[in-house]
Amino acid sequence: MDVKPNFFIVGAPRCGTTALYSYLRQHPDVFLPDYKEPHFFNTDMNSGGAIRDDAEYLALFASARDQARIGEASVYYLSSQAAPERIKSFCPTAKIVVMLRNPVDAVDALHAHQVAAWLEDVWDLELSYRPIQRFLDGRTCMSSFMTISNAIRRRRFGKRARS
Question: Which end of the chain, N or C, is more open, meaning fewer C-beta atoms within 10 Å of its C-beta?
Answer without folding.
Answer: N
